[in-house]
Each structure stands twice: as C-alpha cells, then as structure tokens.
Amino acid sequence: MAAYQSFAKLYDLFMDGVPYDAWCEQTVRLLASFGITDGIVAELGCGTGNCTERLAARGFDMIGIDNAEEMLEEALQKKIANGSNALYLCQDMREFELYGTCRAIISRCDAMNYLCGTEELSEVFRLVNNYLDPGGIFLFDMNTVYKYKQLLADNTFAENREEGSFIWENHYDSETAENIYDMTFYLREEGGYYRRAEETHVQRAYTLAEVREAAERAGMVFVAAMDAETEGTLTDESERMLILLREQGKEVNNE
C-alpha cells in the first residue's frame, strides 16, 4: 500500500515544523559544489511537493516522483498556485522510469527509509545511476538507527488541532531493523464531524556501511556522508544522515 493515502490532507498541517527552507538551501548549495545550478533534477518520494516546488522556484527543472496519488494531488495544487514548471509522476521509486537523464536526483525527508531491504536499496541506486547524467549526483537523507532505536522506539506521539488530529504509535524491531508506525488520523469535515482513518507504515533503518555496500553493488560511487543537520561528521547520536553518490559508467560526450 502506498504511504500517506489517508494522511495527504493533513500532511502539510502536521509537517509545518519541518525545515523545508533550510533543506532547500542545503540542497542548492551542495549541488552547486558539483557545478549543478540548473537543469533537470528529479526528487524521489516528493510527497506534497514541498521541496520540489522550492527547488523549481530556484530555477531547476523539477520532476517529482511519488507512489501516493493523494499526495501528488496536493503537490499539483501547489504547482498551480506557484505557476511552477514542476512535472509530477505517480511512480514507485523501486521501478521509476524517465524519458532521459537528470543532472541530479534527490530524496529528502527519509523517503529512502521506506525501502525495506538492501536489495531494494540497491535496485533504486541502480535506477538512479541509469537516469543520471555522466557524473551526476544523487543526494538523499535517511533516519539513522539511533533515531529509530532511541528516539522513536516504542513511543507514542499525538497532536490535536482544529483541522484534525493524529496519534502516532511506534515499534522498533532490532532484529529486522524495521520501525512500524501505526497512525490514526481524524480529519475535520463540513458540519464539524471528524473522519477517522488508519494507516500502518514501515521504515527500515540502515547503517552507513549497508548504504555504501548497496551503492557500490549498483555501480555508483560513494562521495560523502555527513550529519544532515550539522554537515559535520556522523556520530553515534546523529538523527539523520545525508549521503551523496555519483553516477558511474556513462561516457561524457564532448562533441
């Protein structure tokens, strides 16, 4: 089941604390360090388009890819409101297809953690490598084992607002490295009634070693890994890691 089918209407409401502006600035700056300041950039797991639209406003020709139709509907509304040039595709990142290559591909907000196993991770890396320009960059973040095991663990989070509310229960399985989210949403509708919806999400924690091995198995070059917040060295208490990989295998045509 695609994630966030019921949650799409509430997603932006409860994600208003996510530092999308900072992530956009970070992404733009890091891509620029590789000479990528324009051209086609694709985002895997784009959700409601928060990063996609910001990067489109910075001059990139954006392609947003997500497998949840309801999330993309919200993204399209933003595209219309912004008058952006973003293209949104309803595809699973494990088998996405593009008509050509991109200067860069990105994935923010732990979308890559939804890949349940190193084989799936390696397959996505293989596809990314295929759809990147020669020497193109893949920039993505992931929640760390520390975050799942120590911060989310078996904790329950809840929030109540006038437009809706949610209850978010977590369970982390150390043997499988999977974090299971049981989520219950209440969306306020006309007449003051609330509609209830439930979803179960599963994310997998990966060590940096697992990510590097999967990338190398897919033919990509490992470039760097850092703490996503500080851009410093990853520590045992880093909550999110930011990773950069480079395309390998295509020849540059200088004609």
TrEMBL record:
List, alphabetically, the CDD domains matched: AdoMet_MTases
Pfam families xref list = Methyltransf_25
- Limits of the Methyltransferase domain: 41-136
The protein's UniProt keywords, in alphabetical order, are:
Transferase
GO molecular function terms listed in the Swiss-Prot or TrEMBL record? transferase activity
User: Out of the domains of life, which is the source?
Assistant: Bacteria
Tell me the InterPro entries matching this sequence: Methyltransf_25, SAM-dependent_MTases_sf
This one is known as: Methyltransferase domain-containing protein
In its UniProt entry, the species of origin is given as Stomatobaculum longum
